[in-house]
Design a protein that fits this description.
Structural class: alpha+beta
Radius of gyration: 30 Å
Number of helices: 15
Order of helices and strands: HHHEEHHHHEEEEEEHEHHHHHEEHH
Distance between the termini: 103 Å
Strand content: 5-15%
Oligomer: single chain
Largest sheet: 6 strands, mixed
Helix content: 55-70%
Strand order of the largest sheet: 3-11-10-8-9-7
Shape: elongated
């Protein structure tokens, strides 16, 4: 009888004692992770903004503007993470109470913890092997989530064990009719354990579904309408001129480095940086599209180096080692164009058709080869570019976007933020262009 009384007291202690220490640790860390996710969700819902400390060309900017930052191009993954952390907290709190609903709470803990751990591993892989850039905010959230999940599983195990110990066994009970037999006790203990395992399985399946949806979803492009009143695409004295950004940016297509025929159906002014991972993927997609659809689009190079040395819109505090040579690479590209326009397309492709940004010294040697060994002409062209601050207007035009690169501008009031990952995205962009209004309205303006 004494042993039965002790068991009853132990059960009362568990009921009144509440959450074990490791459970409180899990809840506190999960709350911190939820705060990070809530902040990233808020940021993702505001077009063109980046988290604190993330410049437009930074790793977090590249990650947060990739298609992997959302599910089906609509739902921010940070919003899903926020829900998972909330579910983890609710599950941990509920699993410590020996009530009829404890089994469901343990199941919820397992599902949330497995989903958080699985998602963390998935996004670690994406940043390391697919995107090629790291998001400090994201990794902070994943790190906190991992710790919270491990603590939550430990808390569920402790609560499970305590609840099992609190159950009086058949041998410990002497009151005949009221005593549960061993089979009934086992039945009461089993569901919680099964719930943790089945919940974990459901959580992992959920992550797999999200991953598959992301894999088949094309890149999400921010399609924003600009005033069309002064955009134009006209032929003047045998030369093609285009105006974008409501006429604020006007260029002669043939006067800037370009890939494709000047008289192509559409003109794409591409703001990019040779050291930008997304930009290199974007240029590769456009290049492949041009090869498959000759005469459809001409790509005009608008280099925007993410380096304060030559970009007025780039703060010195944002400078990163990955973009240390951005200004030099852009200058070499423009210099090759000025010395030998026919050599530029091959040199341009050499700069971006690689996994990592080209080394400045290696690029300089390659540039000399591209212009037939005329290093003096190349150096003179570079000095002329610097004296005229040729790249400066491109950076000033980019400032107003307040967004990561690349940015593709199409005459007619459309611009796209982000990399095209497929030819279909390019086709959609061209299909949305109004080819009639820009020229007519520009001519009416005189």
């Amino acid at each position: 009888m004494a042993e039965s009384t002790a068991a009853t007291e132990n059960q009362t202690e568990i009921k009144d004692g509440g959450l074990p220490g490791v459970g409180w640790v899990a809840c506190v860390i999960a709350a911190a992770a939820a705060g990070v996710s809530a902040y990233l969700t808020f940021i993702s819902l505001r077009d063109g903004t980046m988290p604190a400390g993330c410049g437009a060309g930074s790793g977090c900017a590249q990650v947060l503007t990739s298609k992997w930052s959302k599910v089906a191009g609509v739902l921010p993954v940070s919003a899903l993470a926020l829900g998972a952390y909330a579910a983890l907290i609710v599950g941990v709190m509920g699993s410590a109470k020996p009530t009829p609903g404890r089994s469901l709470s343990v199941w919820l803990t397992g599902a949330a913890a497995a989903a958080i751990i699985g998602a963390g591993l998935w996004f670690f892989y994406l940043q390391a092997a697919v995107i090629g850039a790291w998001c400090a905010w994201c990794m902070t959230g994943h790190g906190l989530g991992l710790l919270a999940s491990v603590a939550a599983l430990a808390s569920a195990a402790v609560s499970n064990r305590a609840a099992g110990e609190a159950e009086p066994s058949a041998a410990e009970t002497t009151d005949g009719d009221d005593a549960p037999d061993a089979a009934k006790v086992a039945t009461r203990k089993t569901p919680a354990g099964m719930s943790l395992a089945s919940g974990s399985l459901v959580g992992l399946v959920g992550v797999m579904v999200v991953a598959m949806v992301q894999a088949v979803t094309p890149t999400t492009i921010a399609d924003l309408a600009l005033p069309k009143g002064r955009d134009f695409d006209v032929d003047r004295d045998g030369q093609r001129f285009v105006g974008v950004l409501d006429g604020q940016m006007q260029v002669g297509v043939g006067s800037l480095p370009h890939a494709g025929p000047v008289d192509a159906e559409a003109v794409a002014l591409v703001m990019f940086d040779y050291a930008c991972t997304h930009c290199r993927r974007h240029l590769a997609t456009l290049d492949a599209y041009q090869a498959e659809h000759p005469g459809t689009v001409v790509r005009v190079a608008i280099p925007v180096p993410l380096n304060s040395a030559c970009n007025p819109g780039w703060d010195e505090s944002w400078d990163e080692p990955a973009f240390a040579d951005s200004c030099k690479l852009a200058e070499l590209s423009f210099a090759v164009w000025r010395v030998d326009p026919e050599a530029w397309p091959a040199f341009d492709r050499w700069l971006w058709d690689r996994d990592m940004a080209a080394d400045a010294d290696e690029a300089a040697a390659r540039a000399v080869e591209a212009v037939g060994g005329d290093s003096e002409a190349l150096q003179s062209a570079i000095l002329a570019l610097r004296d005229a601050e040729t790249l400066r207007p491109f950076g000033e035009a980019w400032i107003q976007f307040d967004s990561p690169l690349p940015v593709t501008l199409w005459p007619g009031g459309r611009y796209d933020i982000g990399a095209y990952d497929s030819g279909g995205a390019v086709t959609d962009a061209i299909g949305a262009i109004d080819f009639s209004n820009p020229a007519t309205e520009a001519q009416d303006d005189g």
